[in-house]
Design goal:
Strands 5-2-1-6-7-8-9-10 form an 8-stranded mixed beta sheet, with helices on both faces. The chain is α/β, with parallel strands linked by helices and about 325 residues long. It is built from 16 helices and 10 strands. The chain folds into 2 domains: about 180 residues, Rossmann fold (3-Layer(aba) Sandwich), CATH 3.40.50.720; about 140 residues, N-(1-d-carboxylethyl)-l-norvaline Dehydrogenase, domain 2, CATH 1.10.1040.10. It is globular. α8 runs antiparallel to α9 and α8 crosses α15.
Length: about 325
C-alpha cells in the first residue's frame, strides 16, 4: 500500500484527496495545507469549509500542517499548490522527501517570475538530473465535480511512460479516468494558457458580446495555445485532446471556472485588485498571462489574445478596446 502525500489544501487538493480515497487501489493518504484555518476546519469538521464546502474528507486521509509529517514515507508526492508558491514549497521539500519519491504536478500555471513550467521547477529544486521521476496531471476537471464523484477524464503526462502507467493505475477509479501521454511540454503549456484564454472568454461574457464572440475567441485561443506548445517542443495532437481542447472548453465556458469568473467581472468594469481581493481562490490565468506572452516572444510567435489579456491585467487597458483591437487585426486566412 503506497503512501501519497497531497501538498496543497485548496479546492483541487481536497478534491484529489477525496478521489484518491475512492480509487481502485488502497493508499495511505496525507493532505498538507499551509493555512492554519484550513487545517483546523479539516481536522475538526472533516470538511474544507473555506475552499470546498459540503464534501466530507474520508477518514483515511490524514490532515497535517507539518510538511515533514506529510512527506514521511511518501512514495508519490502530488503537488497541488498555486504556481506562484510552487518553488518555495518544493524547495522546502528538497531535504525531506524520500530520494526515490516520484512527483506529480497538478498545478496548472507557469511560474510568474521565471516563466518556467512546473515540471522544470520541480527538477531544478529537487535536484533531479532527469525528468523521469516527474509527471503532470492535467485536463478538464472542476474540483467540485471530482469531489462529487461526477465522471471525469484527465491526462497523466510523463517522459517516462512506465511511470505514467504506474501512476495511472494508482490514481484511477470508477469515475476518475486517466489517460497517459509522454508530451509533458504540450500538457503543461495547455494547462497554463487555457486559463488565459478563459479570462478572455469571461471578458466577452461580461461585456455581453454573445456566444458567437465566445466561440470565435475560444477557437482562436486554441490556435494560440497550439502555436506556443509546438514552438516549445510539444505536439499538436496533445492540444487537440483532453489536456488542450478539453480543458479549454471546460474553463472558458463552465460556470465553475474561476478564470472565467474573473474575466466576467473585468468585462463588467470591476477593478482587478478588487476582484482578487474578494476571494482566496486563485485564478492562475492572472499570473500566467505575462509568462505565456514572454515565452511567445522568445520563440517569436504571435499570441494576440494573450497580449490583449495581459494589457487588461497589467496596464489597465479598457476591455472594450482590447476586444476591438482583436476584431480589427489585419484580415487573413484561418
Amino acid at each position: 500500500m503506497k503512501k501519497i502525500a497531497i501538498i496543497g489544501g485548496g479546492s483541487w487538493g481536497t478534491a484529489l484527496a477525496i478521489a484518491l480515497a475512492r480509487s481502485s487501489r488502497a493508499h495511505r493518504l496525507a493532505l498538507w495545507a499551509h493555512s492554519a484555518d484550513v487545517v483546523e476546519t479539516l481536522c475538526a469538521r472533516r470538511t474544507n469549509e473555506i475552499y470546498l464546502p459540503g464534501f466530507q474528507l474520508p477518514a483515511e486521509v490524514e490532515v497535517t500542517a507539518s510538511i515533514e509529517k506529510a512527506l514521511a514515507g511518501a512514495e508519490i508526492i502530488l503537488g497541488v499548490m498555486p504556481s506562484a508558491h510552487a518553488r518555495t514549497i518544493y524547495r522546502a521539500m528538497r531535504n525531506i522527501a524520500s530520494p526515490t519519491a516520484v512527483f506529480v504536478s497538478a498545478t496548472k500555471g507557469l511560474e510568474p517570475d521565471t516563466h518556467a513550467r512546473i515540471s522544470e521547477l520541480i527538477a531544478e529544486e529537487m535536484g533531479l538530473p532527469s525528468p523521469s521521476r516527474i509527471a503532470v496531471l492535467t485536463g478538464p476537471s472542476f474540483a467540485l465535480e471530482v469531489a462529487a464523484g461526477q465522471p471525469t477524464a484527465v491526462v497523466l503526462a510523463s517522459t517516462d511512460l512506465n511511470l505514467a502507467s504506474d501512476i495511472q493505475g494508482e490514481f484511477s477509479g470508477p469515475r476518475f479516468r486517466l489517460y497517459t501521454n509522454d508530451d509533458v511540454v504540450g500538457a503543461e503549456i495547455a494547462g497554463a494558457v487555457k486559463n488565459v484564454i478563459a479570462l478572455a472568454a469571461g471578458i466577452c461574457t461580461g461585456l455581453g458580446l454573445g456566444t458567437n464572440a465566445v466561440a470565435a475567441l475560444v477557437t482562436r485561443g486554441l490556435a494560440e495555445m497550439t502555436r506556443l506548445a509546438v514552438a516549445l517542443g510539444g505536439r499538436r495532437e496533445t492540444l487537440s485532446g483532453l489536456a488542450g481542447a478539453g480543458d479549454l472548453i471546460l474553463t472558458a465556458t463552465g460556470e465553475l471556472s474561476r478564470n472565467r469568473s474573473v474575466g466576467i467581472e473585468l468585462g463588467r468594469g470591476r477593478d482587478l485588485r478588487e476582484i482578487l481581493g474578494s476571494t482566496r481562490r486563485v485564478a492562475e490565468g492572472v499570473g500566467s498571462a505575462a509568462a505565456a506572452l514572454e515565452l511567445a516572444r522568445r520563440v517569436q510567435i504571435e499570441m494576440p489574445i494573450t497580449e490583449q489579456v495581459h494589457a487588461v491585467l497589467s496596464a489597465g487597458r479598457v476591455t472594450q478596446d482590447a476586444i476591438r483591437e482583436l476584431m480589427e487585426r489585419p484580415l487573413k486566412q484561418e
